[in-house]
């Protein structure tokens, strides 16, 4: 006798509603999880856990479901809401502002900024910072970060400027292969139509932003906000004087960093020094 499907709770959150709608449309189409798996290229077990809201859907799934069921964007709309729920409350406003930003400027002191991390680097970082987490929890965090990166792939997305400390390039996560791929991505971003990446070498010495990660967001109309992050907490600054102070410090750091061309060469030298 087949197991009875687990009861769903669509009223709990957008993620739960996404799963409930997926099951409803699947059953309306008289389609098993195995059959749906073949259509959307996601494993049966993963689809089952998405239906019960145990994990976040991967970014490619909503459009595939809309195509499979002819639902005219319903799953993509639900996904946009659900993707915000996998982040702690303190970051939700930041995500909303990121989505509205015309320019994003970042300083990464010890870790490669999340918006430009590779999937394997993300996974390695979360495994180090959450050593007791279950694999499913790690994968959900990975999906959350990849979801944030989607805004930079949009043709109408913001311009992105990164100053990255030499420490972030040399502090390995996941081993040489993971770091080599991550550094290769950074080298590609040093100068593109929408990105500028500069390296701040150790020889620069101390500076005003040495205490932690900083993000500056410029919104339509020129409004600017700043976001500072520590080990496990973040602070959103909207006071004009404080934001202007952070911006002056960032501008000075950017002026002292290597040029994009020299930054690319520096990153490649770090790659070459990795063990094979």
Q: What can you tell me about this protein's structure?
A:
52% of the residues lie in helices and 14% in strands. The protein is built from twelve helices and six strands. It has helices spanning 14-28, 33-40, 44-51, 61-69, 74-85, 89-100, 119-129, 135-153, 166-170, 176-188, 240-256, 260-273; strands at residues 101-108, 159-165, 195-200, 213-219, 224-229, 234-237. It has a six-stranded mixed β-sheet, sandwiched between helices. Helix 4 (61-69) runs antiparallel to helix 5. The mean pLDDT is 91.
Brief write-up:
The chain is of the alpha/beta class and 276 residues long.
Topology:
Blueprint: H1 14-28, H2 33-40, H3 44-51, H4 61-69, H5 74-85, H6 89-100, E1 101-108, H7 119-129, H8 135-153, E2 159-165, H9 166-170, H10 176-188, E3 195-200, E4 213-219, E5 224-229, E6 234-237, H11 240-256, H12 260-273
Parallel strand pairs: 1-2, 2-3
Antiparallel strand pairs: 1-4, 4-5, 5-6
Helix pairs in contact: 1-5, 2-3, 4-5, 7-8, 10-12
Which descriptor suits the 3D outline? globular
Distance between the ends: 53 Å
Indicate the percent of residues in helices.
40-55%
Tell me the Rg in angstroms.
21 Å
CATH fold naming of the largest domain: Endonuclease, Chain A
How many strands appear in the DSSP assignment?
6
Q: Tell me, what is the CATH class of the largest domain?
A: Alpha Beta
Task: Return residue spans where pLDDT drops below 50 for at least 5 consecutive residues.
Answer: none
> What is the subunit organization of this protein?
single chain
CATH hierarchy: architecture of the largest domain: 2-Layer Sandwich
How many structural domains can be distinguished in the coordinates? 2
What share of residues are in beta strands?
5-15%
Tally of helical runs: 12
Question: Mean of the pLDDT scores?
Answer: 91
Give, in spatial order, the strands making up the sheet with the most strands: 3-2-1-4-5-6
- What is the N-to-C order of secondary-structure elements (H for helix, E for strand)? HHHHHHEHHEHHEEEEHH
Largest sheet: 6 strands, mixed
Structural class: alpha/beta
InterPro entries: Cro/C1-type_HTH (IPR001387), DUF5753 (IPR043917), Lambda_DNA-bd_dom_sf (IPR010982)
Protein name: XRE family transcriptional regulator
Domain HTH cro/C1-type: 22-74
GO molecular function: DNA binding
